[in-house]
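Input structure tokens:
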């Protein structure tokens, strides 16, 4: 297996993130971790990840998270511009759905084993 270096933006206490890291390593990927709160992606980085992954910005929000509920974002997001949403995400790492994995060519958000097998399985 060839080594592929991937960066995972994750929260170390998150069980889903731990499972994702384990899966990535099992598939032969070299994994670089990045703490989503201590080293939160900037609005520019998030925009680049969205473009790279061809994703909708809604996919980046951790809708089941405490901060999302506290800020009442379910009702507020519809009236925000993409730039405002990106700035909001960049201002609070816990608002971002995790884990985000990228090798600079592809991006996945969240963890689903079948998706990981498809995207990250051929290291």
């Amino acid at each position: 297996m060839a080594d592929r270096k991937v960066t995972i933006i994750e929260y170390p206490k998150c069980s889903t993130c731990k499972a994702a890291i384990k899966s990535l390593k099992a598939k032969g990927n070299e994994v670089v971790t990045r703490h989503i709160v201590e080293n939160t992606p900037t609005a520019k980085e998030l925009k680049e990840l969205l473009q790279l992954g061809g994703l909708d910005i809604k996919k980046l929000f951790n809708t089941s998270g405490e901060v999302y509920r506290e800020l009442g974002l379910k009702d507020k997001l519809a009236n925000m511009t993409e730039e405002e949403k990106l700035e909001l995400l960049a201002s609070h790492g816990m608002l971002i759905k995790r884990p985000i994995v990228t090798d600079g060519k592809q991006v996945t958000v969240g963890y689903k084993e079948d998706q990981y097998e498809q995207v990250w399985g051929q290291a």
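Residues 7-104 form a domain with the Glutaredoxin fold (CATH 3.40.30.10). The chain is about 40% helix and 15% strand.
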